[in-house]
Design goal:
- With 263 residues, this protein is an alpha/beta fold.
- Helices cover 33% and strands 22% of the residues.
- It contains 9 helices and 10 strands.
- Strand 1 and strand 2 form a beta hairpin.
- 40% of the residues are buried.
- The chain binds adenosine-5'-triphosphate and magnesium ion (MG).
- The site of adenosine-5'-triphosphate has 12 residues, from helix 1.
Length: 263
């Protein structure tokens, strides 16, 4: 059975804009999936639906047997403790130490009373440190988050998400705030760590070349519909045209064609 099962998902925003038309997809534990598509294709809307921040207008999202799309706010809060999220802008608490930031990933597993007093037992602290070591950031555990570079901040935010021991990890343009060299390193770290712990990971990304390099599977979305769903080497020139140049107007701001793609 699929860990994530999305069927006929539609999202219409209150202003009448249809962001997702009828998205259906399944994913298994351990898959590393890139979601690509033009700006406005619906990538962030899709991730927000999976963690319940955006209600579905129609359709179902089932994660590990639980229907996210049917949950009330209380059930969603509980479900989100098993959904890791990596944001473009890191979303760390800047004035707090790195370790404390990573420990917030343990909140869903900790006794609420203990959390209120900032207490995390040895097991939680060990998991947090192990997560930091996976992204090679253990040496920064006691530094304040605001003293870190952008790449370091994103590594800490990956550690925080992994410390959650989530069923699924969602990353919305996790390297969009980093320079190209650092983007490659941090995305490589994200994919490596996700593989090490075997967590299903969905990554919204604009750099097609990174998606091809680091992910097992690519989902191309155009105008709220799945245009491609398959292996990276199926991402040929004509497929990229269907994802990015369906209206034949304007040109994307990146070189979309991976080395192996046919023109
Ligand atoms: N709250 C909202 N109300 C109305 N329309 C919205 C809202 N949020 C997003 N949209 C529209 O829905 C469409 C999909 O938006 P979404 O943010 O999911 O796209 P995206 O693929 O993530 O784009 P980008 O690559 O720029 O991040 C866009 O046309 C966007 O303008
Ligand atoms: Mg987006």
């Amino acid at each position: 059975m699929a860990l994530l099962d999305i069927s006929d998902l539609q999202v219409v925003y209150p202003n009448g804009h249809v962001a997702l038309k009828h998205i259906s997809l399944q994913a298994k534990a351990g898959e590393i999936v890139a979601i690509i598509g033009r700006s406005g294709a619906g990538k962030s809307t899709l991730l927000r639906c999976i963690n319940g921040m955006q209600p579905a207008t129609r359709g179902r999202i089932v994660l590990d047997g639980d229907e996210i799309s049917a949950m009330n706010e209380r059930a969603l809060r509980q479900a989100r403790s098993s959904i890791g999220f990596v944001w473009q802008e890191f979303n760390l608490v800047e004035r707090l130490p790195v370790m404390t930031n990573v420990l917030t990933g343990r909140l869903g597993h900790n006794n609420p009373f203990a959390s209120f007093f900032g207490y995390f037992n040895a097991e939680h602290r060990e998991i947090a440190l192990k997560s930091l070591s996976r992204v090679n950031m253990m040496h920064r555990a006691s530094n304040r988050a605001d003293k870190l570079s952008g790449g370091e901040k994103q590594r800490v935010s990956i550690a925080r998400a992994i410390a959650q021991e989530p069923k699924i990890l969602l990353a919305d343009e996790p390297v969009a705030s980093l320079d190209p060299e650092l983007s490659m390193q941090v995305l490589g770290d994200l994919a490596r760590v996700a593989r090490e712990v075997g967590v299903l990971t969905l990554i919204n990304i604009h750099q097609v070349e990174f998606a091809v390099q680091f992910c097992d599977r690519i989902i191309g979305i155009a105008q709220g519909e799945v245009e491609y769903d398959g292996a990276p080497d199926g991402l040929t020139g004509p497929v990229l045209d269907r994802i990015y140049r369906f209206d034949k107007q304007g040109s994307p701001d990146i070189n979309l064609t991976p080395a192996h793609a046919v023109a």
